[in-house]
Write a structure and sequence with these properties.
alpha+beta; 6 helices
Length: 171
């Protein structure tokens, strides 16, 4: 077992990211680690920051979520030190990912963001993916920030029915 708890927490994060073929959000990793009471929120944020700075994970901010993925360097590090991660912890991670796979995948497969365009309007980008493949990637221009935020929020709630509607109407 590992003597340094920070190293253990880093291996837990790397192991989680290595076991999925899609990014996890910081909140999803937090949910697992805090639920199991491995460490606290502030320490976890420090760990994620250190792993990002070291190039072992990549972080992409999309609206109010940070999507995390393991890098090749992170995989190599995990491979080298994985034997130091206890079997009970690995089992906890595997069970969590298996139990929540659909919800975890769905949460990071539906993306919505907006930005102010040079024209002064706001552009919303709405994306739905399945196994890393874009099913739909739509950009809408709207006049106000409030409208852009509303569209992003509604995309999170209604993306499946909107996608099905488009497929029905276009085919």
């Amino acid at each position: 077992m590992i003597q340094d708890p920070l190293t253990l927490y880093k291996l837990i994060v790397l192991y989680m990211l290595d076991r999925v073929n899609f990014p996890l959000t910081g909140a999803q990793i937090s949910d697992f680690i805090l639920e199991k009471e491995y460490t606290n929120f502030l320490t976890l944020q420090q760990i994620i920051g250190e792993l990002t700075t070291a190039g072992m994970i990549s972080a992409q901010s999309i609206r109010n979520r940070t999507h995390l993925s393991i890098t090749a360097e992170g995989k190599e590090t995990l491979h080298f030190f994985e034997n130091r991660l206890g079997e009970a912890i690995k089992e906890d991670i595997e069970n969590y990912l298996k139990e929540k796979e659909f919800d975890l995948r769905n949460e990071v497969s539906v993306l919505a963001d907006y930005y102010k365009a040079t024209s002064g309007e706001y552009e919303t980008r709405l994306v739905a993916k399945d196994r890393g493949i874009s099913l739909i990637d739509l950009t809408l221009s709207v006049p106000t920030k409030e409208l852009a935020e509303s569209i992003c929020d509604n995309w999170q709630k209604k993306n499946q029915e909107l996608y099905q509607y488009l497929i029905r109407e276009l085919f």
